[in-house]
Amino acid sequence: MNETAVAPEHLDVVIVGAGLSGIGAAYRLQTECPGKTYAILEARDAMGGTWDLFRYPGIRSDSDMFTLGYPFKPWREAKSIADGPSILRYINETATEFGIDRRIRYQTKVVAADWSSETARWTLTLAERDAAGTVSQRELTCSFLYACAGYYNYDRGYTPEFPGRASFSGQVVHPQFWPEELDYTGKRVVVIGSGATAVTLVPSMAGQAERVTMLQRSPTWISAVPGRDKRADKIRELLPPNLAHRVIRTKNILFTIGFYQYCRRRPAAARKLLTALTTRILKDKSLVAEHFTPTYNPWDQRLCAVPDADFFKAMKKGKAEVVTDHIDTFVPEGIRLKSGRILEADIVVTATGLQMLPFGGIVPRVDGRPVALAEQFIWQGAMLTGLPNFAVCVGYTNASWTLRADLSSRLVCKILNHMDRRGYAAVVPEPDGKLTEQPLLELAAGYIQRSIDDFPRQGDRHPWKVRQNYLIDSVTTLRTDLNKTLTATPESAVRETVPAAAR
User: Fold this and answer.
1) Both 87 and 34 in a single domain?
2) What's the pLDDT at 346?
3) Strand 383-384 to strand 378-379: parallel, antiparallel, or no bridges (unpaired)?
4) How many CA atoms lie within 13 A of 321 on its CB side?
5) Which residues fall within 8 angstroms of residue 158, CB to CB, at 6 or more apart?
6) Are residues 15 and 134 in the same domain?
7) Looking at the structure, do residues 368 and 459 belong to the same domain, yes or no?
8) 348 Cβ contact partners less than 8 Å away, ≥ 6 residues apart
9) pLDDT digit string (tens) for 198-207?
10) pTM of whole model > 0.90?
11) DSSP reduced 3-state for 335
12) Do residues 454 and 373 lie in contact, with contact meaning Cβ atoms separated by under 8 Å?
């Protein structure tokens, strides 16, 4: 036995991911559990997550920044729907202001996570890349693991296999890996897809390209929203910054939830409203019927918002076109459609969606055995059955991600403080009866349906149901009785089996 072996570094909490969620989690941990040691492990070389990775033209939020931003850090810029660089700057400012930037360890990827019931600790295997690009591995232990890496695969986007693609004489790019040197000035561009990325790219590229065509397989709900919130501007004129931020945030939360509930409860009326608004802008009923009146109801899939109607304005100027058809094959000059029409293109952008990856790709093991995430249930939208001292950060699909993310981080802090008060070494949620299994995310979007079977399940009742209602969650989440569904292991049970030198 090697008596001189150095024990791995140990931290109370490890946060995985230095994006919007990870920085917010660190703030809550610092302020609500000030005695805890922690670090943020970031696989890339910069903070910001999605807002640092994606560099395609016009990248912006699809939620207002008064709710996508942090409740503890007022959004002070003019635009409510903000561009990617502004959001990234905001995240960096937050991390610097609260000293969170000093806790981030870049180029550090968690490649394995092993829980030991004997020691009540996670052992993380880390792959670290140095300045020369050399990758080495080491171990780190922690008492609690919090995955804030979202559910996107940062290394791979989703692109279907298109017939004849190799014959295309132009350039094919994916928004997730946008080439910095790409020059589309005076070029003919076809954007395949109709989600938030596509409706952002089209007006952004239309200013320089000869023409931009959005090719969609079926009609899409797209709604114009103000890029600047005039009521918010007035409130900020009248009230101090922090109070104004709270008032505006509350106003926008109520509007978002109210509109979502309206769409879900009165789908026919919502369809009529959205169709009328789009027709008022485009002034062409047949165009709206063909391209912007889907068979599915509003919010069966996430609603695409276009600030200041920029997408529709590009169409009216003749710089952009929407085509609803299916791809037959790529040809040297562009794309031939099932209808026989050929869309000539110099550049094709495959805005065909993202690959989902559960919680940064971490495959946890408990006492040496892999835990199948798809067989677990999620409790309070944060902790998982079968995984002690482990939480995940999952945002809303019908509102700003940060609303739920911040609630989850505050819940994690409540759990940590509860464990300290009670003398618990470990906690894990366990249902008090059989749960009816449901998908974690219930949107019909293709990128979700392709991978949702790899994710944990939600149940059919509270607290195992992942509600899409911030008003209810904000009242109930932090009032939950932790003794009812969290099974605990007392510290005394660990101390009896673990020598002092190993603790």
Assistant:
1) yes
2) 97
3) antiparallel
4) 15
5) 352, 353, 354, 355, 447, 450
6) yes
7) yes
8) 168, 170, 171, 172, 173, 189, 190, 191, 192, 330, 334, 335
9) 999 999 999 9
10) yes
11) strand
12) yes
Are 453 and 380 in a shared domain? yes
pLDDT of residue 449: 61
| Among 225, 227, 245, 226, CA closest to 235 | 245
Query: Where do we find the tokens 């004997």?
Result: 118
Q: Taking 50 as the threshold, does the pLDDT of residue 503 lie above it?
A: no
How many structural domains are present in the chain?
Answer: 2
Angle, helices 267-282/241-265, rounded to nearest 10 degrees? 110
Q: Tell me which residue of 379, 378, 381 sits closest to 407, measured CA to CA.
A: 381
The answer to whether 41 and 50 have CB atoms below 8 angstroms apart is no
Q: Quick one: 339 and 367 in the same domain?
A: no
Domain that holds residue 71: 9-154+355-502
444 occurs within a structural domain: yes
- Of the candidates 253, 254, 296, 244, the one whose C-alpha atom is nearest the C-alpha of residue 274 is 296
CA distances from 244 to 73, 80, 282, 499 (A): 12, 14, 35, 54
The yes-or-no verdict on residue 498 having pLDDT over 60 is: no
* Domain assignment present for 233: no
Q: Any idea which residue has 């990617």 for tokens?
A: 84
CB count in 10 Å sphere of residue 5: 7
Distance from the Cα of residue 198 to its chain's centroid = 17
Instruction: Over range 241-258, report the average pLDDT.
Output: 93
Q: Please state, in angstroms and as integers, the Cα–Cα distance from residue 348 to each residue in 141, 177, 195, 482, following that order.
A: 46, 13, 16, 52
Q: Which long-range contacts (CB under 8 A, 24 or more apart) does 248-254 make?
A: 248/66, 249/66, 249/67, 249/71, 252/64, 252/66, 252/67, 253/67, 253/399, 253/403, 253/470, 253/471, 254/471
CA distances from residue 3 to 6, 7, 499 in whole angstroms, order as listed: 9, 11, 15
Helix, strand, or coil (residue 326) = coil
Q: Return the structure tokens found at 145.
A: 């693991």
Spatial distance between the Cα atoms of 386 and 383, rounded to a whole number of angstroms: 9
| Residues 363 and 467 placed together within one structural domain of the fold | yes
Q: Are 2 and 24 in contact (CB under 8 A)?
A: no
Instruction: Please give the structure tokens belonging to residue 490.
Output: 């007392």
